[in-house]
Amino acid sequence: MLSISQRVGLMTFNRKAAAKLNLKPGDKVVFLQDEENKTDWYLKVSDDSDGFKLRRGSNSTGLLNFSCKKIASEIADSIGVSGSFRCLISTEKTEEGNYPIITRSAMPKPY
User: Fold this and answer.
1) Distant-in-sequence, close-in-space partners of 17: CB < 8 Å, separation ≥ 6
2) For the whole model, what pTM was predicted?
3) What is the pLDDT of residues 24-39, one digit of tens each?
């Protein structure tokens, strides 16, 4: 699961998602938006210099995160949500090697 805080731009992968996607601290991720279907977003693990470097969550329970208010807002705006929310991530890669973010699964994050 990917948790997104639009207000502060924090993007957090929970422990299960990090394990299933084989993400580790120091890995870089890139978010890609489908040009034709603007509500479709993808995650790519990459060595791209523009990628966001993952770091351990503050409580070190397997959470990985990074901050980018621009990406958080772009995703939220494209799917019509605001505030903090969560989305599922497919563990099946596309032909291009990207993981689909299941934006239709977006749900408000409880406080």
Assistant:
1) 1, 2, 23, 89
2) 0.89
3) 999 999 999 999 999 9
